[in-house]
């Protein structure tokens, strides 16, 4: 679609956790890309490898986790194999991250202003005073009332939504090109969720950064993103422009996920279809498609051979031997 | 829904680890073996061949001149100022440490453990009263308490055990209480209560087994502290009466000859050190084992 | 938070009374006749009877406790059976010496334990970490009198430091510090071991389990800075509690160390009184030690509350 190279390119990423009893492949052959200013969603259940993928892109995978294979390029620069010092130059300044639980992800015994200033001073030449002024500006930018007072408060003095705003201010403090938001609204109540997502959307438009939204909630992905990557058991099983994924899913897993969203026109008092079974144990993956055990369309082929993620149409790919029939074709 | 951010490893290979038989780890085997060796040597000291009587001095000269150095004939580690065999006295002294250590753990465990389980399970006023009284005991530095009790009870092994067990009671009670509290609200206890089981029955059948593990592990640490406390009392001359050998009194005897004959202090000192270090390492090893089993459940 | 403080303060009263009552009972119900201590073993029964009556020893034990307690509230802890001196005066003379040694021991233990724990967690499992872990185990497993004698053997004798004796600070500050050094170092060994282990364990827990550490790493903060600037301030709180709890061990250790190094502190006073069966002095010393322990732990709670913003700011919001 675009002629300029993408901002972030992840190719064939494989992340392995070495344990005493053998290795577990948490992320298996994942490829994805994000263009400048674009918003993508990585959707999956817990344990699907979406968070590990995000953390690996940030260079936050720690032993026993390690990158076994693959490449991560940011604006053309290879990140895999960077030294710790080089990584620190990337983190916080080019890529920033917002985490799930804002209570736990802020230091409870440090003033929120100090936590923002620390990031600013690490990546810029601003003085202590300037950094503080910038922190106040940032708090103002994330719509925190009375920012001058709030910079001197501790996380427990703020509400959950405000804490997450602080986290966003922290992430934006050095003008990153890519913001990774790992389940940023999961720990918040519904009305706050909406506000935080709207805020992120506005700030993204203002600052022109790209956003990678990691979520288990495919509904959130629908309204805020351009492209969706669906992950299952460590693999990307389908990727498509958001609108087309929702109107015309091809991978049976995606279809099942979409069917489980309640909507206004679904008949009342009728149980929502749920996906039978549970995700496979990553330590004991079979040779076949990892979804085969739960898939209504599975055949003998699905049990023995793993389908590759293939770009079947321009801009959309799926990994399935027996995809759901396209509604658009009929 | 919150999604805990754990390593897939920690969660995934559970099924396997249970089926695979656990190898005994070095953390447990090494201190365990060392403890067994020390205990065996001390308890078998009376019948070990070639070991002289611990209280029989060989006087060859005036007082204080009967000391023999390391590797003297008949005395592998030499003798003290009264010509008594150091190795023999050290091993016999170990018997006292073992008896006092195990005895005070048993007494503390029985009294403290029972109080804690009852307080934690009963809750309310019983809990408050029991724990407040124990707070008072906890306010005494353990050695000071043991000193006072030991002095006024007089030097005998049961009295030493009582004096030393005193300090362990409140900490045992706290551990047992915490365990009982955590178990009390669990489903199997609730269902036992709802089906009309008697409190005593629930305590013995459901609560106690779940508290015993941590109490016993803690007992290893307490045993080490008890051995040190006994040695400290003996060192201050408030332990078992001479000439019965005790590590503490042997070291007190050697104090004056520290620069010329450090072995008199170092031989019992090393035995004491190895015993207590092994107890601590063993407790640590077992706790690791319990933790890793607990987390994979 | 003020309410919490009030509750703790109220809690102090029964514990203090309980401690003094327990001590009194222990010392009075246990065998041994104070009258004999005063008069010596060969006293005539008439003399014993007279002095027993004079000391009020024929009163019921609860009444005697009441008399003692009322006196103690007014600062009068009785007179020594042996010397006839006021116990309060004796204690006041001895307390500063013990305090000095214990304070020095705390400083030495913390000054060593903090950097060792911090360096240890930089690379868990490294040679340094393992060695530090061993020193901690050794420190816990060695009784203070053995540590003291080992120090005499490897420090005092080769370097010609005074092994025993005490020079008051007012007499000669430098010599005072020299004479306090070995006793303090001896006490510090066990404290170091406890502090190092607690701190290391807490640092590791925070580093591996706390999300704010991940946030700091995501900001690009280096590991060493994360430990020093972010994790240490949170790990200090459990350490403060542990410092309070270990005051008991420290007070007990002081008895031994003061005896070993012939330091005229509270512990030496108590031991000497025990040797001489001077019940009144023992009682005064034990009560002072126990009450001090309770008060120190109360002070530790206050300190904790003053330092931890999570508690400190509850006052503002409630």
Automatic annotation (TrEMBL), chain A:
Gene3D superfamilies the UniProt entry points to: P-loop containing nucleotide triphosphate hydrolases
Stored InterPro entries: AAA+_ATPase (IPR003593), ABC_Ni/Peptide_Import (IPR050388), ABC_transporter-like_ATP-bd (IPR003439), ABC_transporter-like_CS (IPR017871), Oligopep_ABC_C (IPR013563), P-loop_NTPase (IPR027417)
SMART domains: AAA (SM00382)
GO biological process, alphabetically ordered: peptide transport
GO terms under cellular component: plasma membrane
Alphabetized GO MF terms: ATP binding; ATP hydrolysis activity
Family affiliation: Belongs to the ABC transporter superfamily.
Protein name: ABC transporter ATP-binding protein
Automatic annotation (TrEMBL), chain B:
One Gene Ontology cellular component annotation held by this UniProt entry: plasma membrane
Subcellular location field: Cell membrane
Topology in the lipid bilayer: Multi-pass membrane protein
Transmembrane segments: 28-48, 96-121, 133-153, 159-176, 215-240, 260-282
Top-rank taxon: Bacteria
SUPFAM superfamilies named in the record: MetI-like
UniProt keyword terms in alphabetical order: Cell membrane, Membrane, Transmembrane, Transmembrane helix, Transport
Chief location of this protein within or outside the cell: membrane
ABC transmembrane type-1 domain mapped to chain residues: 94-283
GO biological process: transmembrane transport
InterPro entries membership: BP-dependent_transpt_permease, MetI-like, MetI-like_sf
Pfam families: BPD_transp_1
Recorded family membership: Belongs to the binding-protein-dependent transport system permease family.
Protein name per Swiss-Prot or TrEMBL: ABC transporter permease
Species the sequence originates in: Aeromicrobium piscarium
UniProtKB/TrEMBL annotation, chain C:
Pfam families: BPD_transp_1, BPD_transp_1_N
InterPro entries for the chain: BPD_transp_1_N (IPR045621), MetI-like (IPR000515), MetI-like_sf (IPR035906)
A Gene Ontology molecular function term of the record: dipeptide transmembrane transporter activity
Transmembrane listed as a keyword: yes
Domain ABC transmembrane type-1 intervals: 95-304
Keywords in alphabetical order: Cell membrane, Membrane, Transmembrane, Transmembrane helix, Transport
Family: Belongs to the binding-protein-dependent transport system permease family.
Protein name, as recorded: ABC transporter permease
Species of provenance: Aeromicrobium piscarium
Taxonomic lineage from the root: Bacteria, Bacillati, Actinomycetota, Actinomycetes, Propionibacteriales
